DNA sequence: AATCCTCACAACCGCCGGTCA
DNA sequence: ATGACCGGCGGTTGTGAGGAT
């Protein structure tokens, strides 16, 4: 069961790329292009690598227009500014900086700028729904999960993550939301089914962002800096424990 | 000189969205 | 409508270099 792997992991080389591999990949791409399929590319190029690995190597390192070297003050400002506006949408931020990749920007943020921000006493502001891009839903107004009313469907009121309190305890600095979750399946299947953390989460990756917060909980003391309304999205915690696919499967079954 | 620690960044992992059969 | 496949993305981990002890 589970997702089909993108390649045969037992028969592909992993780890750092050798100069020979780089040369082979570069040479192949320069003469043939990707052919519209990264998965088949390594075979054609004579490489024992996963297609995704080839793609990443090319995009993040071998591409001729990549800018290597340290970031400038101006680039720092751009990153701060864009992060403040949209959070950790590294690919979008990188698109504003010619020659920089999302991986570059992400690494730079994680290793340098985040610390710089702390040293400066700065704080990435919370992003209100009005300020956000339209694709990001408004956490503060998240209506899919009523906090106090009785659940619309009793079947969903008992579906509570067993480990929620544990997570809350582990991250004592975080005010994890730990009341019973009551899920409304109609809301969960709306076009934007699940809510989004206000801590700069992208519209696609909110669950992982929450996991990241939990791992760095000790460094977060002000819960209001995580979410505008003072606590993490209920659904984010929920999905962190149970996984998106499990929820989809369970809800589908119950809806049938 | 050896060991430990920290840091930067390359690479991997797993997920989601889009596309197509 | 459904499922498989692929590309793209963000979070996390692994690794090597360099500094500190």
TrEMBL record:
Localisation per UniProt entry: Nucleus
Gene3D superfamilies: Homeodomain-like
Domain HTH myb-type intervals: 9-62, 63-117
Source species, domain of life: Eukaryota
Record-linked InterPro entries: Homeodomain-like_sf (IPR009057), Myb_dom (IPR017930), SANT/Myb (IPR001005)
GO molecular function, one term: DNA binding
Transit peptide listed as a keyword: no
Alphabetical list of SUPFAM superfamilies matching this protein: Homeodomain-like
GO CC terms, sorted: nucleus
Pfam families: Myb_DNA-binding
Domain Myb-like span(s) in chain numbering: 9-62, 63-113
Keyword field: DNA-binding, Nucleus, Repeat, Transcription, Transcription regulation
Official protein name in the record: Transcription repressor MYB6-like
Source organism: Pyrus ussuriensis x Pyrus communis
Phylogenetic placement of the source organism: Eukaryota, Viridiplantae, Streptophyta, Embryophyta, Tracheophyta
